[in-house]
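Practice problem 4.
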């Protein structure tokens, strides 16, 4: 993108600086919080600018005549994009490439800090601008405001989560945020943005700023599974592979980027999987062709190789390797040996970067053999927000959670969230249960049939939840301030 942007801005004879701001941690992406942090850090450390252009890195300008100079009102610089056949109003009138004066950004209270994952933060910002009578306008040379969007896929872990059983009929956290957008706009934004400046990288063509938007970090994390301890390191280190014979990696999480959809030999598959980073979470051997037998997977979900998963019989050469990168929470951490009982608990020690305003809750959802079970757990943390501050440490241990006992692979996606269901920290782990009985296979297949029946039941449930007036009032009241409910 810079290859096109620098020459264009120079031809426009504009005095400018380009800052690339990146979320330092590898957790869930929060565009609004990163934008707010970038605005504050640039104003504090690099002087006062009279115009800010927020530029998604996948947007390439097609015409020099689209002028990057602020107008009286905030400007939607990218109303026409090739992906949408250059049709205007493609879902929002703010987003992609936008331009705004600093005082206008502050008056609107900037972006919301509460949209984790992808979607709706730009529409929320558009509402804020309109509320302050700062409705976005098109650029002066609107016929030249055309952009090409670089084709790309978000890795599975950066996408919004697939709903669990029955959740299509529930009111989600983002539904509540959208409903209470007016109530939130006064307190949730640039004026309550908290971040930690990590480091800076200066290049001839741009300045890169790394910001840490976490409220806390995990200093220690242990999972106790049937009395076996799975230690999840929090220190960034090397990547390695753990091998599981006669185990299958869920094919739903195939590599979607075309150039990586290929078979490799084992050594090359490992090397490529490390090279591409978070796009690859493991490799699986799918054939016996004398060399190039391995494919990559974006998410390492281990499965029992039951007959129904294969056209013919289960291949005897089947093998999966899970990539584990120390200190990186995008892994689905596996327990390396089987257990007899499907029970677990988590132990953690947290270190806070700054004070928080709401209580925290441990939540998790359980998956069996790649299918959502509908099983969830909650455990309120015995932590008072008023006690938190920078460098404050807090330790806790959850209850012991017991699951239905079937031979097979369980995945637990765990998280720490607040009363708004904002996910501040998340991790996933998987373990294999072997009840050592002769009927273990039939019991597992029977449980999978039960899960399939539940999934079928909820498949046709309409996602457009009808809100009662009482529910709407309750949500708006709850989101009228950022502290705990009394």
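Answer key:
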């Amino acid at each position: 993108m810079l290859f096109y942007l620098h020459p264009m801005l120079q031809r426009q004879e504009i005095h400018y600086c380009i800052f690339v701001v990146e979320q330092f941690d590898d957790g869930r992406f929060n565009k609004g919080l990163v934008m707010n942090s970038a605005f504050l850090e640039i104003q504090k450390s690099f002087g006062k600018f009279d115009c800010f252009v927020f530029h998604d890195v996948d947007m390439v300008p097609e015409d020099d005549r689209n002028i990057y100079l602020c107008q009286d009102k905030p400007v939607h610089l990218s109303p026409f994009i090739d992906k949408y056949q250059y049709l205007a109003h493609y879902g929002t009138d703010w987003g992609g490439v936008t331009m705004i004066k600093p005082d206008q950004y502050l008056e609107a209270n900037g972006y919301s800090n509460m949209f984790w994952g992808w979607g709706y933060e730009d529409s929320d910002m558009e509402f804020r601008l309109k509320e302050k009578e700062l409705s976005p306008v098109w650029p002066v040379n609107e016929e030249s405001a055309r952009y090409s969007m670089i084709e790309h896929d978000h890795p599975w872990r950066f996408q919004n989560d697939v709903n669990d059983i029955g959740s299509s009929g529930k009111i989600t956290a983002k539904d509540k945020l959208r409903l209470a957008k007016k109530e939130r706009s006064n307190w949730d934004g640039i004026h309550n943005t908290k971040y930690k400046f990590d480091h800076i990288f200066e290049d001839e063509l741009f300045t890169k700023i790394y910001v840490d938007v976490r409220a806390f970090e995990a200093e220690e994390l242990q999972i106790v599974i049937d009395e076996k301890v799975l230690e999840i390191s929090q220190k960034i280190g090397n990547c390695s592979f753990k091998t599981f014979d006669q185990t299958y990696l869920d094919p739903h999480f195939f590599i979607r980027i075309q150039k990586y959809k290929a078979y490799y030999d084992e050594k090359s598959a490992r090397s490529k999987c490390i090279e591409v980073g978070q796009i690859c979470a493991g490799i699986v051997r799918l054939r016996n062709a004398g060399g190039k037998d391995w494919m990559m997977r974006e998410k390492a979900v281990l499965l029992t190789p039951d007959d129904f998963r294969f056209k013919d019989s289960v291949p005897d050469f089947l093998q999966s390797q899970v990539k584990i990168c120390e200190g990186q929470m995008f892994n689905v951490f596996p327990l390396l040996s089987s257990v007899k009982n499907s029970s677990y608990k988590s132990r953690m020690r947290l270190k806070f970067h700054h004070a928080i305003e709401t209580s925290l809750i441990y939540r998790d959802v359980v998956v069996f053999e790649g299918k959502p079970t509908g099983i969830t757990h909650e455990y309120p943390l015995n932590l008072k927000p008023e006690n938190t501050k920078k460098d404050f440490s807090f330790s806790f241990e959850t209850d012991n959670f017991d699951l239905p006992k079937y031979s097979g692979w369980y995945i637990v996606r765990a998280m720490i969230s607040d009363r708004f269901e904002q996910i501040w920290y998340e991790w996933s782990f998987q373990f294999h249960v072997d009840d050592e009985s002769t009927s273990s296979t039939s019991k597992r297949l029977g449980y999978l049939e039960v899960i399939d029946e539940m999934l079928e039941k909820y498949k046709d449930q309409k996602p457009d939840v009808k809100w009662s007036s009482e529910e709407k009032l309750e949500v708006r009241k709850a989101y009228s301030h950022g502290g705990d409910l009394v």
